[in-house]
TrEMBL record:
It comes from Microbacterium plantarum. Its EC number is 2.7.6.3. This is 2-amino-4-hydroxy-6-hydroxymethyldihydropteridine diphosphokinase. Gene3D superfamilies: 7,8-Dihydro-6-hydroxymethylpterin-pyrophosphokinase HPPK. The keyword Ribosomal protein does not apply. NCBIfam families: folK (TIGR01498). Residues 24-160 form the 7,8-dihydro-6-hydroxymethylpterin-pyrophosphokinase domain.
Length: 182
């Protein structure tokens, strides 16, 4: 006869009965019809299983970042943030984000892929509730989100009380960026 731990439920809970968590997805595009791509990506997020888009910010246009810093000669990005309520595990949600990117023409990610290339669509999982994790495939919260005006500004626009786990309030992070105006 096996013994159950007190906190272990007698039967596994179906995924759809798990509590939803608020996840933050950064969306960017600098190739093709950027506005249409961003709008379609948000609609696709809203159609994911066990997920709904709670809010998304108006897109902002930003200068492309390269390894050497901002590059005004590169195609400009259209960036926004979507707040989604999801019952999907972070790794599962990330897999769906990569599939959406691929449907919009982004080549599958590889370990040696340049981080700074132009993109038809870029979806980054910034935060997933208060989850903190670091694996080869996923780091949460996103390790550079606190440095990125194009993530913090739209996030703050849709959630004035937003907090980036482990980093603090988004309004304070944005105010601390050089040359940033909230």
């Amino acid at each position: 006869m096996s013994r159950r731990l007190a906190q272990e439920s007698p039967e596994p809970r179906p995924a759809d009965s798990a509590p939803a968590r608020r996840a933050v997805v950064a969306i960017g595009a600098n190739l093709g019809d950027r506005a249409d791509t961003v709008a379609r990506a948000i609609a696709e997020l809203d159609r994911l299983p066990l997920t709904r888009v709670a809010r998304s910010a108006d897109p902002i246009e930003t200068v492309a970042l390269t390894l050497d810093g901002p590059d005004a000669a590169a195609p400009a990005y259209l960036n926004t943030v979507a707040l989604v309520d999801t019952r999907l595990a972070p790794s599962v949600l990330l897999g769906y984000l990569h599939a959406i990117e691929e449907r919009h023409g982004r080549a599958p990610r590889s370990a040696d892929q340049a981080r700074w290339q132009d993109r038809t669509l870029d979806l980054d999982l910034i935060a997933h509730g208060d989850v903190v994790c670091e694996t080869p495939a996923l780091v949460l919260p996103h390790p550079r989100a606190h440095e990125r005006d194009f993530v913090l500004r739209p996030w703050l626009a849709v959630d004035p009380d937003a907090v980036l786990p482990g980093r603090g309030r988004v309004d304070a992070l944005l105010a601390a960026l050089p040359g940033s105006t909230p």
